[in-house]
Amino acid sequence: MKVKKIVGGPLPTNCYLLTDETAGVSAVVDPGFESPELDGALRAAGNVRAVLLTHAHFDHITGVHRAVELTGAKVYLYSEDLPLISNSVQNVSSIFLASSVPPFHVDTLLNDGDVIPLG
Q: Do the domain assignments include residue 118?
């Protein structure tokens, strides 16, 4: 598996692109902000199947809408973090952003022990 770190956005946050070169599929982890770097990496990766979120603070989820728009990937989030995505106080965006996190749909809620197939 190939791992590419992508840093971008107004508050540089680490995002990762995981690629299974054998299967020809990728996943993006924590697309924090929309950025030319992230857009380019997602386009170059091709078959991005999953957006994996480690948690739902704004600096990890603000770019989800754009990542899904570019790739059609499914979004995975830990079940207990679901209320945070639309709550600007809980996801801390009210402190740092002039606008709210662009809305997005979570396709799969995760729980401890779940396994996510990539390839």
A: no
Residue 74 to residues 28, 53, 77, Cα–Cα distance (Å): 10, 11, 10
- Show the tokens assigned to 10: 């107004």
In a domain, 12, yes or no: yes
Tokens of 63: 């770019």
The per-residue pLDDT for range 43-71, each reduced to its tens digit, is 999 899 999 999 999 899 999 999 999 99
The answer on pLDDT for 20 being more than 80 is: yes
Beta strand 13-20 pairing with 25-29? antiparallel
d(CA 109, CA 80): 9
- The Cα 6–Cα 31 span in angstroms is 9
Q: Which structure tokens are listed for 116?
A: 């996510």
Contacts of 78 (CB under 8 A, 6+ apart): 53, 54, 55, 56, 109, 110, 111
Domain total in the chain: 1
In this structure, what CATH number is given to the domain that contains residue 87? 3.60.15.10
Mean pLDDT score, 99-108: 90
